[in-house]
Specification:
It holds the Pfam family Fz. Keywords: Developmental protein, Differentiation, Disulfide bond, Secreted, Signal, Wnt signaling pathway. One of its GO terms (cellular component) is extracellular space. Helix content is about 30%, strand content about 20%. The protein is an alpha/beta fold. The protein folds into two domains: about 150 residues, Frizzled cysteine-rich domain; about 120 residues, no CATH class. The strands form four sheets. Strands 8, 9, 10, 11, 12 and 13 form a six-stranded mixed sheet that branches.
């Protein structure tokens, strides 16, 4: 997203305000962004400065610290979250450091801090927005208002109390909520850092799309699951894949999950409900 020259262009996602450069006064070197930093790949450049703007002096430290933010990036809590974090962990290799603007930090913080809090973590002091320059300096600025209007506004997932998982239900109850249901398969694996990583598969054939396209529904459900990580932990007690029916609706542009039913293939009531699905009509 960044192109190097005498003038920098923050392509597609924003623009660069230029007056004077900021430099943290460290002796730095250019290094290739390592493959372990997946969130900072395909961002328009392949080399970063080390030490970085977070004060990390070794690549091992950069990888370890940045990896903990990958989950937040996956939630897509703000359009700039990846650009903001990569500008700090993997700053572009130029003659001077280019900080994110304070306004970008504030925008990302306001959208993503609630997600961090949902995971049990406050917005860190190391990302205090007051440490970043104002928009009148050389820095990465947020999207223009005109650019925002070019994109479709979709309902947003939110942090919420995890609904209780229902194991026993009647086929009539399943049919009652069928039109607001999506079938989700969850599994998890261990990462190289011994953290939990979840593989989320969403099958949207059992949901009423309305004005949304199938891939939009899948993306929003994936975001809901990533934001509500504690809910996933409850729903995936083992490493064996588990299938659920999630029932929810959209209230004031917010996606809310109301009920969670565990999909058990041998359940007679669920089998009966699936036989009737093809004839069921939504209002």
């Amino acid at each position: 997203m960044l192109l190097t020259a005498k003038i920098l262009v923050f392509a597609l996602n924003g623009f660069l305000r230029v007056t004077t450069g900021l430099d943290i006064g460290l002796s730095t070197k250019c290094v290739v962004i390592p493959k372990e930093m997946g969130m900072c790949h395909q961002i328009g450049y392949s080399e970063m400065r080390l030490p970085n703007l977070m004060g990390h002096t070794s690549m091992a430290e950069v990888i370890q610290k940045s990896t903990t933010w990958q989950h937040l990036v996956n939630t897509d809590c703000h359009p700039h979250v990846r650009t903001f974090l990569c500008s700090l962990f993997a700053p572009i290799c130029l003659d001077t450091f280019i900080h994110p603007c304070r306004s970008m930090c504030v925008a990302v913080r306001d959208s993503c801090a609630p997600v961090l809090l949902c995971h049990g973590h406050p917005w860190p002091a190391s990302l205090d927005c007051d440490r970043f320059p104002g928009d009148e300096d050389m820095c990465l600025a947020p999207l223009t208002k005109e650019y925002k209007y070019l994109h479709k506004v979709l309902p947003k997932p939110t942090c919420q109390t995890c609904p209780a998982v229902e194991e026993f239900f009647t086929h009539k109850r399943v049919l009652e909520v069928f039109c607001d249901t999506v079938k989700v398969k969850l599994s998890k694996k261990r990462t190289a850092f011994e953290d939990q990583e979840y593989n989320i598969e969403c099958q949207v054939e059992f949901i009423t799309q309305g004005s949304l396209l199938p891939y939009e529904t899948q993306s929003m459900i994936q975001q809901w699951l990533l934001i509500n990580e504690k809910c996933i932990e409850r729903m995936t007690p083992t490493h064996r894949p588990t299938v659920y029916l999630l029932v929810g609706n959209i209230e004031e542009g917010i996606i809310l999950v109301k009920q969670v039913y565990r999909w058990q293939r041998k359940d007679s009531q669920l089998t009966l409900a699936t036989q009737k699905w093809r004839y069921h009509k939504c209002l």
